[in-house]
Design brief:
CATH topology: Cytosolic phospholipase A2 catalytic domain
Largest sheet: 8 strands, mixed
Distance between the termini: 15 Å
Helix content: 25-40%
Number of helices: 8
CATH class: Alpha Beta
Structural class: alpha/beta
Strand content: 15-25%
């Protein structure tokens, strides 16, 4: 007999592929989302799941579309990366284009770039909200929605559990950014990414306390947010880790 539970999915760039592995392991135990709150990479996976796709179907879409980043050599002021491939995949494959029409409720968290506040989208057009939630400042141009610039939701809460707390119980949290041991020889990009993780970690730990179960697959720390070519390895870590954990949890 299928069991429905609320899930909250974090951001994490390419590590977001692990969300599919985690959800696959739960599906094998007949546990499926009754609602999902998510941000950034987590919101991309969540959109397909809430749209009625199975994890295997989403995995195939990601593989076929070679989901990742597009380079656009704009000036630094505007940002030089785009989410064009993500946008194309969403437009091509999603069956529903508004939050209200989704079979499973979805809450997408972005950050208001004007005042820094978290914004939860659960009404209106789906795709602009997902793109806004996935837009890393400086690398991407903010996404304008109703005259307000929005960027990555991870900045204001990388595990946005709040929308679920009033309506649902026994939340399952999935965070794909384990903090790895400090390596002084890590280099500029490794240290920059570590700095971001540490800056957003405290709100994640608070959100963790609101979850009955918290999944943070070990091994994902070896991958960077732009390791989109490592799809299979990232997915496999999420799947294998969660399968093992579920044997002891349930």
């Amino acid at each position: 007999m299928p069991v429905l539970r609320p899930f909250v999915l974090s951001g994490g760039g390419a590590r977001g592929y692990a969300h599919l592995g985690v959800l696959k392991a739960f599906a094998e135990r007949q546990i499926f989302p009754e609602a999902i709150a998510a941000t950034s990479a987590g919101s991309i996976a969540a959109a397909f799941i809430c749209d009625g796709f199975h994890t295997d179907e989403v995995r195939e879409i990601f593989r076929q579309q070679k989901l990742g980043l597009s380079m656009e050599w704009k000036n630094w002021r505007a940002g030089f990366l785009s989410l064009k491939k993500v946008e194309e995949a969403l437009k091509k494959n999603l069956r529903h284009t508004t939050f209200e029409s989704l079979p499973v409720p979805l809450y997408v968290a972005a950050t208001n770039f004007a005042n820094g506040e978290q914004k939860i989208f659960d009404r209106g057009p789906l795709i602009p909200a997902i793109l806004a939630a996935s837009t890393i400042p400086m690398l991407f141009r903010p996404v304008d929605i109703d005259g307000v610039p929005y960027v990555d939701g991870g900045l204001s809460g990388n595990l946005p559990v709040e929308p679920l707390l009033l309506k649902y119980k026994r939340v399952i949290g999935v965070h794909v950014n384990p903090l790895t041991p400090y390596n002084p020889a890590g280099g500029f990009f490794a240290n920059m990414e570590r700095t971001v993780h540490m800056a957003i970690r405290e709100p994640v730990l608070k959100s963790k306390q609101q979850c009955e179960y918290f999944i943070e697959p070990e091994g994902l720390g070896q991958f960077g947010i732009f390791d989109f070519s490592k799809f299979d390895a990232i997915y496999t870590i999420g799947l294998g880790y969660t399968r093992k954990l579920l044997k002891t949890m349930m």
